[in-house]
């Protein structure tokens, strides 16, 4: 049975050890980083840098704690993510959100280059076949996965699996484009964007949010560049009139997340990856959107484990036991205590991704939760 170490977000004593940074220090000691990482070894600290307007990411203070703990072993950490908007813009977003060399104490690196197509094809599973793993993540010998736990419009629940499935894979490949990258998970079939002119209000939100300028309007007609498009689905998400749609299959998406996670993880030797889940500022949306809604669940704390399936299941279990917060999307969806808040927020079968990860041999849903005293 896998061990998952947990520290509550509550601080009931006026002591540093009771603070969240202090508890993270203690969790990093509990798991014994020297069991996983060696002196002079390069270690990727994988996280999500957020977006301009989406500030509820893993805070730089926590990333700094992880970096400092790795440095104390003599390891050489760097903080990384893959291109989600244009690469240079994303580096600016990271800095805007407080993630830079000065704040985190380590280099901040784009894992798939500033153009987002520096990757290596890796065999995955029956759905994806092959997937373009970011070259830096493919080559680095060790990794700490720092995930902001939240809801998600497509995944229902977004944690460590989504962090490395979509964040460890490039948006596209140099030759096979989006079909070999992150877009292979987002969509099914050819992933062609459908536009209903009658419903369109010409608000242009879809055009403004597209990270690649793949959408334009000409005389009130949409113009979509299907070759340039990454199939991220942001245009569909922000269309409040329902005029845009991309084909999708929720079960296939969940299973493909697990497949992509396996593809990323098999580039590492055993016992070279650990996971830290931050159950804080639990908003209903992904951190890649240009906004951050108010949290739907109160901060719950931090978890750490070397089993991706166990830590995901433990995180889900805690969220499901937590009451919804008022004045949030929980009110909009009429969610009450005891309801499956993750499903009601998105109506997505989120548990499939964890079940499939277990089936693929990435870990076990059975865990022992060890709470810091």
Task: Give descriptors for this structure.
single chain, Alpha-Beta Plaits, 31% helix, eight-stranded mixed beta sheet, Rossmann fold, 373 residues, 20% strand, 2 domains
Account of the protein in words:
The chain is α/β, with parallel strands linked by helices. The protein folds into two domains: 2-183 and 249-371, 3-Layer(aba) Sandwich (Rossmann fold), CATH 3.40.50; 189-245, Alpha-Beta Plaits, CATH 3.30.70. The protein is built from 14 helices and 16 strands. The chain has an eight-stranded mixed β-sheet with strand order 4-3-2-7-14-15-1-16, with helices on both faces. A hairpin with a 3-residue loop joins strand 8 (150-152) and strand 9. The longest helix is centred in the C-terminal third of the chain and has 16 residues, at 250-265. The chain is globular and about 60 Å long. It starts with a strand and ends with a strand. The model has no long low-confidence stretch (mean pLDDT 94).
CATH topology of the largest domain: Rossmann fold
Quickly count the helices: 14
The proportion of strand residues reads: 15-25%
Overall geometry comes to: globular
Could you name the CATH class of the largest domain?
Alpha Beta
Largest sheet: 8 strands, mixed
In spatial order, strands of the major sheet run: 4-3-2-7-14-15-1-16
What is Rg?
A: 20 Å
The strand count comes to 16
Helix content: 25-40%
Order of helices and strands: EHEHEHHEEEHEEEHHEHEEHEHEEHHHHE
Q: Based on the structure given, which CATH architecture of the largest domain is correct?
A: 3-Layer(aba) Sandwich
Number of domains: 2
In whole angstroms, the N-to-C terminal distance is 21 Å
Low-confidence segments, given as residue ranges, are none
The SS-based structural class is alpha/beta
